[in-house]
Design brief:
21% of the residues lie in helices and 32% in strands.
């Protein structure tokens, strides 16, 4: 793999994934790390929410946020996301591992066109809480002007995915139980801040991720 290429794994290439895995990780993770380099050469990484909008990633934050202003000015960046799917328990500590899915997208971010900003913000919100944008009022001009929303294009050769699944390998001379412990994310019962009917978006998310049956 060269500096200019981000499409080939040099270690454990069998764990590399395709575009379908990339979309899967980015859609499920909803959070990752935006990394860039400052003008004086220091690394700069910021954890933030992300939403995939077709062939681009959307990130957003305060229009005054330093990292977003830096990448919006043209600084190269990467966005990484990582999902833990299980703990791999081996017969030796050396062979313990995790099952995971990961993604890296590299490039230069662009400011979303003002004409597309409202739609992009709705796409972003619905990626985190599906259906919520239809339950609330429209964004106000003041809110839009206070928000920086940027897009990172997903370009062939500038992204990489990697995944591991299954149990541990067999270690020579080691004995004892081995296997793997699946890991998943669930949403707990909503905590009320203001009274009223539970929004459908919250209700659906809660029921879907906790496998609770509808009353």
């Amino acid at each position: 793999m060269t500096i200019g290429d981000l499409s080939t794994l040099t270690r454990k290439p069998d764990r590399g994934g395709d575009r379908a895995l990339l979309d899967e990780v980015l859609d499920e993770a909803t959070v990752g790390v935006l990394s860039t380099v400052t003008d004086d050469g220091f690394p700069w990484s910021v954890p933030m929410l992300v939403a995939r909008d077709g062939n681009r990633l959307l990130v957003h934050g305060s229009s005054g946020a330093g990292a977003l202003r830096h990448v919006a000015a043209g600084a190269p960046a990467t966005f990484t996301a990582f999902l833990v799917d299980g703990l791999v328990v081996a017969a030796t500590l050396f062979d313990h591992s995790v099952n995971y899915r990961s993604a890296v997208v590299r490039g230069r971010l662009e400011r979303v066109d003002p004409a597309d900003a409202l739609r992009a913000l709705d796409v972003f919100s619905d990626a985190v809480l599906p259906g919520r944008s239809a339950e609330v009022r429209d964004h106000t001009p003041k809110e839009v002007s206070a928000t920086a929303i940027l897009a990172l294009p997903i370009i062939e050769g500038q992204w990489l995915t990697k995944a591991r699944s299954g149990g541990p390998g067999v270690a020579d001379g080691a004995v004892g139980w081995t296997g793997h412990v699946p890991v998943r994310t669930v949403y707990d019962e909503p905590v009320v801040a203001t009274p009223g009917e539970l929004p459908r978006s919250v209700r659906d998310l809660y029921r879907q991720n906790t496998n609770r049956s509808q009353p």
